[in-house]
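Hi R.,

Here's the chain you asked about this morning:
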Amino acid sequence: MENEKKAALLHVATITGKLMLITTLTALLLACVNLLTEPVISANDEAKKEAAVLDLFPDASEIVSLTETASDTYPEGINEVFTVYQAGKLIGYCVDAQAMGFGDYIGMMVGVTPDYRITGIRVLSIAETPGIGMAVAEHDYLTGYEGLSAPVTFDDGPNHADAISGATYSSRAIRNGVNLVLDYLSVLDDMSYLTESGSQSNENPAETEEAGNE
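And here is the predicted structure, written out as tokens:
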């Protein structure tokens, strides 16, 4: 009987040890994969944001991220703010924002003029219901926001935006993200020193590439 108990305990210990070893190795493998892929994912995200900024402001010659100087002023939902210049003149803002949709957060880049009117919206990430929920990311829908100023509502009025029937939560996410951006930029206006063109600027990638080829 005593030998049977020892054998049973040894069996349990062996299985436990194997499971712990497998768990440890899996965790190490996942950590290594994350270490290798994180810079690539980060670089892809930055490239996507930069492409969205240049899409919204194709005449931009200088793009300045305010993360280093103003990130402590970002409210929840604002990930990054860019000021956009052409030949040293401020021509607008681009704000990487997110708002909760039906299933998850919808990430968007919102372009705004210096007088706080929407120039356009580009959806950066979305995981809404396939079909009607994803319609809020389509260009035809997003163009309805162009020229609007705060507060954007679904009610009749000068700043009216359409909600997609059957995709209420997704539509609200776009509207809420836009209003969040407009509200924040009005606060940022009181800190105008943060929007001055500075040494942390990024030149238009196309211009940089051309310069490098000369």
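One quick note: Residues 2-56 form the longest helix (55 residues).

Cheers,
M.
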